[in-house]
Specification:
The protein has 469 residues and is an alpha+beta fold. 45% of the residues lie in helices and 16% in strands. A hairpin with a 7-residue loop joins strand 2 and strand 3. The longest helix is centred in the last third of the chain and has 40 residues. The radius of gyration is 35 Å and the shape is flat. The two termini are 65 Å apart.
Amino acid sequence: MKDLLHSWRSRWEKNYKRTLYCDTEQAFKDIGIALPPKMSKTRYVLGWASQAVKKPAMRSQFDGLRLPGSDDPFELGEVLDANRFELEFGQAVHSAYKHGCSFVTVARGRDGEAPVQIIGYSAEAATGLWDARNRRLRSALTITDTDLEGKPTEFVIWLPDEIVTCSLDGGSWSAESVPNPTGRVLCVPVTNDPQMTSPMGRSRLTNSVMVLNDIAVRTMARMEGNAEFYSSPQLAILGVDSEAFGDRGISRDDKFRLAMDRVLALSKDEDGDAPSLTQLQQATMVPHSDMMRTVAMAFAGETGLPPSSLGVIHDQPASAEAIRAAEHDLLIDVRLQNRGALSYAAKDIASLAVMVRDGTTQPPADMWRASVAFADPEFRSLSAEADAVQKLASMMPTISNYPVLLERLFDSGEVARIQADNRKSAVSDLMSKLTEKSAGQSQRAAEATESGSPPVGGEAEAVTPDDSV
């Protein structure tokens, strides 16, 4: 338990920092050079960090389990629907992209609840210790309740042989333990970009992403300051005595009034010379917008987002292919996540759900054949989808006989399902032919009986073993 609490405490500050950036609640970091004191106290925010998490998470949409020959793999459809698993898993993915990992627990439900409870937790409220040999958690901790100040008042420790619930009541802690018959930790980490040195994943909000977000915010603040001066052009009055503005000179209010007045009346001096009024040239906004565009390009390179997603117009795509090319890096990241870390996490959650429901100590024997489907991250148009389906449908009878060609178009799970459907269709066609042949033979035999003559060809035709195959 001490190791779990230490793991949670050691990472909480970093996780909370990323939450602030993702929620656009981070503090403004002023360098203290160009901005006036009052403007440095103004709150400036920018949602680029939020987009770096939200955009890929929206493209990792769980679309169900797939098992060749089964419409409802392991009869989990009702369990997943009762837990709103698509929504729960989507939130876990969003949290994993934000903090590097999130956690999903599986447990037997109480009276009146779903028979199996599947609940997700962010890294701010959960942690786990990794078992590298078995490639799963060896223990986990989830915080299930807090007080008004955010301090934990209840947490659960997940172990292979038991589940311990610790509660704070009246200033003292109490523990309640229940056995875990599955022999596995009923908690699965949902990770983003796991590496050998960081198997629990890495956040998309890296240090460079957060720094670039701060630079962009400061650029916006300088643009705002420049706009304030730009809206009130500076005036220079030459040849006027300072006494014209009183003994104390010109105040700030007088300067503002001077800039805003539509009519100015300036008298001549004692020599009869009239003062001259000159408007100073305003600083242009172009350097600020150019810097914002430069920072946006660097941010896009770090996150894989197209610049247009950051609100920066840069070579606006004019065709579907150009849009896909702009999203190429992001699509590679999302497809890799969907096929790798997220698929394994969803399968592990499904395995635990079956084990908890059935009270077994091993996952189903066919679980290794199951695959996880995700919605197409490219969001193709309906016309493009229809065109692709039409072309594939015309060639599918030929392509389905060649696994190598199928693998060029589909993933392993889809290939297995196509081959299973092909075999089922072949058996159905064979049975139809045998039924038609048997019906024809029966009809010919009936006609021969009525006419009192043998069937065409001599004796009644017999079905040979070759014909019955």
